[in-house]
Structure formats: C-alpha cells, structure tokens
Amino acid sequence: MKKLKVELGTCSYEIRVGTGLLARIGLWLKGRDFSGKAVIITDTIVEGLYAEVLERGLANAGFDVTILEVPPGEEQKSLETAGRLYDDLTEAYAERTTPVLALGGGVIGDLAGFVAATYMRGVPLIQVPTTLLAQVDSSIGGKTAVDHGQLKNIIGVFYQPKMVVADIDTLKTLPEIELANGLAEVIKTAAIRNKSFFNFLDINMNKALQYHPSVLETVVLETARIKAEIVEKDEKEVGLRGILNYGHTIGHAIEAVSDYELKHGQAVAIGMMAAAKISSRMEILDEVDIVKLERIIEKAGLPTEMPDMDKEAVWQAMQHDKKVAQDRIRFVLLRSIGNAFISDEIDPALVEEVLVGWG
Ligand SMILES: NC(=O)c1ccc[n+]([C@@H]2O[C@H](COP(=O)([O-])OP(=O)(O)OC[C@H]3O[C@@H](n4cnc5c(N)ncnc54)[C@H](O)[C@@H]3O)[C@@H](O)[C@H]2O)c1
Ligand SMILES: [Zn+2]
Question: Which residues fall within 8 angstroms of residue 275, CB to CB, at 6 or more apart?
Fold first, then answer.
C-alpha cells in the first residue's frame, strides 16, 4: 500500500492506494474520534460487489454498520435523493461523529459527500472510490455536489474527506468503457503537469487496459499525487486548480450536444485534442506534442476526432458556458506535454474556426 498526504492545514488527509484495502478500513477508523456507528452509502451495483467486505471489516473493528443504497446513475445526484438519505441517517441515529463512507463511483462520492457535508453541519466523510475516475479525480479535492434541473453540480460545497481509500482490486469488475472514461482524466492530468508520467502512460497503456494491478496502482497513485498537489496550492479553485479543466470547456459542450450519449471521458478526449489544435494554431505547442497526445488518447481507446454532430451547436453550447466572457474565451492550453497554463485571451473566432472547420 502507498500513502499520499493532501496538506490542507487542519483539513489535511491521507490517500491510501493499493490492493486488499477494503477489508482494512475498519481497523484504520477504529481509535479515531468517531462514534461506534458507521454508515456506508453506495449504489446497488457496487453494493452487490463490495459492501460486504467493507461492512465485515468495520463490524470486526467494533462499528455498528448501516448500509444505505441508491440506484446507480447520475439522476441520483439530486436534492430529492439527498433528502431521502437525510431521513435514513436520522432513522439510523447517525450522530455528529458517525463516519459516512462513500463506496462507489463519482456519483456516490459527490452525493454522499454532499450529504456528509450538510447533515448536522458536517459528519466525517471517508471516500472509498471504486471507479478509476473516482480514484484519480472526484474523490480528491473536496468538491461535493448534486445536480439541479438541467444544471450539473450546481448545488454543492467544498468539504474535505477524512481519508481516501483507493482499492485497486475494485477496478477488476469495472466495465472497459468506465476504465477508458477514467483514463481520459489520467491522460489529462499527466498532460498538464508531468511529462515523465505521460511517458510512463504511453509505454504502459496496454497493461492498464488489461487491469494489470501494479500498473494501475502507479496510474492511480501518480494521478492522485498531481491532483493533490494542485488542490493543496489552490483548494477553492481561484487560480491554478483551473488547469484541471484542460479539455473540459469544449468537452462539456460536446457531452451536452451528444445528449450525454458520449461519456464524459470521451468528450474530454476530443476536447483535449481541440485545445491542442488551438495551441498549435497560436504557435504555442509543437506538432510533435500534438501527435503524442493523439497517440496516447487512441491507445486508451478514446476518440480523437469530432464525432458526427452539429458543430455549430457545440460552439453555441460553449458560449453558454461560464468560462466564455464577452469577446475573449478562457481556456486551458498546453505549452508542451506536462506544461499547461490558463489563458483569458483566446480569440473566439479562432476557437470557432478550429471547431467548426474540424473533420
Ligand atoms: N467532485 C469532483 O471533483 C468530480 C470530478 C469529476 C467527476 N465528478 C462526478 O463524478 C461522476 C461520474 O463518476 P463515475 O464516472 O465514477 O460514474 P458512476 O459513479 O456513475 O459510476 C459508473 C458506473 O460504474 C458502476 N461501478 C462503480 N464501481 C464499480 C466497480 N468497481 N465495478 C463495477 N461497476 C462499478 C456504477 O454503479 C455506475 O453504474 C459525475 O457525476 C461527475 O460530475 C466529480
Ligand atoms: Zn472531468
């Protein structure tokens, strides 16, 4: 097992990455200032796979465990489901010191995180991410939220967990498309910040796709390390943390126009290529690096070309995005692999040209 620390003063916490960890969480929580109760919030798919081993470990450590389940899917990230969970927590007599364990993907992490942050003004949250995306991205950094109406993540709060436990074993049951979805964020994180990790991915992508445990452990650990470093420097996203949005401005628009037929990671992959093309047109990024980026995205089984969709609609959707100011667009661009920066000075005409003229 490897440990990382996210240094945030009194809100600092550890990320533990390795195999066989679910069964050990109970022991790690024992002896902290927690109540004798523990609550696991999970979805029905993950419940069937991993709740028992986590529950047994907690029970062996002396916790009286309650499991709360919600159906899988983004629709559950709602105030309505949060409301139901508050009822269940009250019914289980959860107290201020009762740890809530978010066992699942990003949906559960965001939802259970939001519930833990707000129930009784905050109860201890333990993130136990079981998708690659959740292990490398959503469980780290303290963003919790639910959706409202058509708006994603619009109601939420920054709330840091007490611990993040990424058990690589859980990835074995993850469908291939979900693995690729997480790999898009992994590639993004390497591309914005760490060239040698990018090269490691280039060499080991096939092994990652074959669920090779030691490769996946390195993938999760290194991506988590980079995200943690960025969050430490800018917890509330007033500056640097924005570079994690690389590929996301166009990516979100593509995702929305596809009516969420495209997965987030697929849309982000196309968004990363689009942003690279913009950097290249501005003569900031070398052609060699664009080719490297394209190759690694392809290796992960993700798209590198604009799908057959209404590009004008993508452009319109982007203009509704909050990152688009009146006559300049805010964009994360690469100077080179491993080196990203935020520019507020992108000419919208160039973005439109790259986007509409693509493919
Ligand atoms: N808080 C943040 O900083 C942040 C960052 C990125 C994304 N997110 C959020 O994360 C969410 C997406 O997360 P996701 O991609 O993990 O999706 P998800 O939580 O919907 O999980 C995807 C599917 O995989 C299943 N699953 C989970 N673990 C499994 C396992 N080990 N084996 C088999 N199946 C498993 C789930 O039941 C679900 O059906 C979005 O709501 C997004 O807004 C949040
Ligand atoms: Zn993302």
Answer: 246, 247, 249, 250, 331, 332, 333, 334
For residue 158, the cross-strand partners are 143
Domains in the chain and their CATH numbers? 2-173 (3.40.50.1970), 180-207+234-356 (1.20.1090.10)
142 ligand 1 Cβ < 6 A: no
Helix (H) / strand (E) element for 167: namely strand 163-167
Nearest to 139 by CA among 152, 126, 123, 154: 126
Question: Per residue in 43-95, pLDDT tens?
Answer: 999 999 999 999 999 999 999 999 999 999 999 999 999 999 999 999 999 99
| Residues assigned a catalytic role | 121, 143, 185, 227, 237, 241, 245, 248, 252, 264
Residue 96's pLDDT band (cuts 50, 70, 90)? very high
Please classify residue 305 by burial: count the beta carbons closer than 10 Å to its beta carbon, then call 0-12 exposed, 13-18 middle and 19+ buried.
Answer: exposed
Q: Are strands 125-129 and 163-167 parallel, antiparallel or unpaired?
A: parallel
> Going edge to edge, which strands form the sheet with 13-18?
2-6, 13-18, 163-167, 125-129, 100-104, 37-43, 64-70
Q: Indicate if the pLDDT at residue 321 is higher than 90.
A: no
Q: How far apart are CA 156 and CA 6, in angstroms?
A: 21
184-240: per-residue pLDDT in tens?
999 999 999 999 999 999 999 999 999 999 999 999 999 999 999 999 999 999 999
Query: Mean pLDDT in the chain?
Result: 95
Pocket test for ligand 1, best of 52, 133, 234, 252 (most atoms within 8 A of CB): 133
Burial of 139 (0-12, 13-18, 19+ CB in 10 A): buried
Q: What are phi and psi of 201, to 5 degrees?
A: -65, -40
